[in-house]
């Protein structure tokens, strides 16, 4: 552009730029993006290469720390449309949450699907639960419904969560997942047996993200205008149908494309085949329910449909892909404690632990101001007294607020509390403070019911998968797992025992039954053979 010279000596020209001109973060136009500044064209370089230093130093930092769990993910935008009812009754009977009240009311959402145990670029065919997290941008602020594809979990107490994940993740010495570590934890945590039964069946490898169920897993509460609360479980049912994979099918897919589920979701939305789920809830009166043979707050248990029917409350459609994966999928941040008025916590001990852990993780991973990022920010006014923190780029202040006042209460023009209209739910809590497990902790009954509900091919796949991985485990772990299977169902235990006995006969002296030395990731049939094949079947090459 041409500009008046402030020295008064005439016009001068600066760099010519337009809307498409490359700049640095300071807004300076970049005139040479091919070469750093050097002494002669061969170097050495000089320290004042500002454009290069800014570019490379940002590149060095462009990945935030990977999620500890749920690292591999895909996401999409869409909307939730309420039915205005819970089954045949008005939603207001059970909850005052605004997003459920009106038939046809649409709330924007962002959904992130994920695998749980493995890293950011791991295959999407691994045997693993799948994360199913939904962020509702409601008129009352954000609501995060954070769950998995499977409706139960391995443990019922948050104290055990770090140990569980450590056992399922790669060995700290070899950096390879090992089935012995997985079953060592599960055999000594018998409450996990129901989840093991599901994860080792074809339900442990969903075909893709569009064709899998979702669940809130934890028990929550709904609260109505009068302050009455009920316990609630959430379930997402895919309108596309449900599809799962056998080990053989998963191996074939992984050999062709280890991003298949991400690609499937992206391409379906691009071609206008928008995936859709219907949201159902199960409702139970608040309380311990001693008449049941399980505790409704136990995350290792299902609520039986015949006693607590699934009630439809709305549908969700995903109709827009992210414009930038990092900004929207990688930086999206969810928390089980993110609830709006009319939704509440239960005393679920896993939920209590997750509520701290999830948001704490986001503050560490993305930063203290992660809620100012567009993908995480509420789509309504936000006004807080929070200050500072890394990467804070605006103040959460109200129009007309006295900017000198960043505290409450104040009589000098600071923020004030909202007026509460709905009656607060105030449950009566009484008891000794203890460190104890939930009682009514039958660890195998529902696992047996789940086994008997499988089709024959699902039972066959479950037994084959368990035998393959348990075969390399020490005998005491095998014995514990067989005992749990015996308790769950006579056929289940017998088939597992027979399968392990047959496997013992077929294993050679290099892979002695229960004593294989080499790491064995979940679901692999002969990982040591793959290591040998990479050497024996590869092609020689001369140095160049």
UniProtKB/TrEMBL annotation:
Specify the Catalase core domain's residue ranges: 23-416
Q: Where is this region: Disordered?
A: 1-33, 499-544
Which is a GO BP term held by this UniProt record?
response to hydrogen peroxide
Active-site residues annotated for this sequence: 70, 148
* Enzyme Commission designation: 1.11.1.6
What reaction(s) does this enzyme catalyze?
2 H2O2 = O2 + 2 H2O
Gene Ontology CC: one annotated term: cytoplasm
Catalytic class of the enzyme: oxidoreductase
Q: Where is the composition biased (Basic and acidic residues)?
A: 499-519
Its domain of life reads: Bacteria
Q: Which GO terms describe its molecular function?
A: catalase activity; heme binding; metal ion binding
Question: Which first-to-last residue range defines the signal peptide?
Answer: none
What does this protein need as cofactor?
Answer: heme
- What are the entry keywords? Heme, Hydrogen peroxide, Iron, Metal-binding, Oxidoreductase, Peroxidase
- Biological role: Decomposes hydrogen peroxide into water and oxygen; serves to protect cells from the toxic effects of hydrogen peroxide.
The family classification in the record reads: Belongs to the catalase family.
Protein's name according to its UniProt entry: Catalase
The organism is Ureibacillus massiliensis 4400831 = CIP 108448 = CCUG 49529
């Amino acid at each position: 552009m041409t500009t008046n010279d402030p020295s008064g000596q005439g016009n001068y020209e600066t760099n010519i730029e337009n809307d498409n001109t490359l700049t640095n973060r300071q807004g300076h136009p970049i005139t040479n993006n091919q070469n750093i500044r050097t002494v002669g064209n061969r170097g050495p370089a000089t320290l004042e290469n500002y454009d290069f230093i800014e570019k490379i130093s940002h590149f060095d930092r462009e990945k935030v720390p990977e999620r500890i769990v749920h690292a591999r993910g895909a996401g999409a935008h869409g909307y939730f449309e309420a039915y205005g009812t819970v089954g045949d009754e008005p939603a207001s009977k059970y909850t005052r949450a605004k997003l459920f009240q009106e038939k046809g009311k649409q709330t924007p959402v962002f959904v992130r699907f994920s695998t749980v145990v493995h890293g950011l670029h791991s295959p999407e065919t691994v045997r693993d639960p799948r994360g199913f997290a939904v962020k509702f941008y409601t008129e009352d602020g954000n609501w995060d419904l954070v769950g998995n594809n499977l409706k139960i979990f391995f443990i019922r107490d948050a104290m055990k969560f770090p140990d569980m994940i450590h056992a399922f993740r790669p060995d700290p010495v070899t950096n390879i997942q090992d089935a012995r570590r997985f079953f060592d934890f599960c055999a000594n945590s018998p409450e996990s047996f129901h989840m093991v039964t599901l994860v080792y069946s074809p339900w442990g490898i969903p075909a893709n993200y569009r064709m899998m169920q979702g669940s809130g897993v934890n028990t929550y509460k709904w609260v109505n205008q009068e302050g009455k609360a009920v316990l609630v479980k959430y379930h997402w049912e895919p309108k596309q149908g449900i599809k799962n994979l056998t080990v053989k099918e998963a191996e074939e897919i992984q050999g062709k494309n280890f991003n298949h589920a991400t690609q499937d979701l992206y391409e379906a939305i691009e071609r206008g085949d928008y995936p859709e789920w219907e949201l159902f809830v199960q409702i139970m009166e608040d309380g311990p329910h001693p008449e049941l043979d399980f505790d409704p707050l136990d995350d290792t248990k299902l609520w039986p449909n015949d006693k607590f029917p699934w009630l439809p409350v709305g549908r969700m459609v995903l109709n827009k892909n992210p414009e930038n994966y990092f900004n929207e999928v990688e930086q999206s941040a969810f928390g089980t404690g993110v609830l709006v008025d009319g939704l509440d916590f239960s005393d679920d001990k896993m939920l209590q632990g997750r509520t701290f852990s999830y948001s704490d993780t986001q503050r560490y991973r993305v930063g203290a101001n992660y809620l100012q990022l567009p993908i995480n920010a509420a789509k309504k006014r936000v006004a807080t007294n929070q200050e500072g923190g890394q990467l804070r780029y605006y103040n959460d202040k109200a129009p007309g607020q006295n900017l000198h006042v960043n505290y409450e209460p104040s009589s000098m023009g600071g923020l004030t509390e909202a007026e509460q209209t709905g009656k607060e739910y105030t449950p009566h809590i009484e008891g000794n403070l203890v460190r104890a497990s939930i009682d009514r902790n039958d660890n195998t009954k529902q696992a047996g019911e789940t086994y008997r509900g499988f089709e024959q091919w699902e039972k066959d796949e479950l037994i084959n998968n368990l035998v393959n991985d348990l075969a390399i485990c020490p005998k005491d772990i095998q014995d514990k797992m067989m005992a749990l299977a015996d308790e769950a169902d006579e056929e289940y235990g017998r088939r597992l025992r027979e399968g392990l006995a047959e496997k013992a006969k077929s294993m050679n002296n290099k892979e002695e039954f229960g004593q294989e030395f080499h790491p064995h990731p979940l679901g692999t049939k002969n990982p040591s053979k793959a290591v040998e094949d990479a050497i024996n079947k590869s092609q020689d090459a001369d140095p160049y």
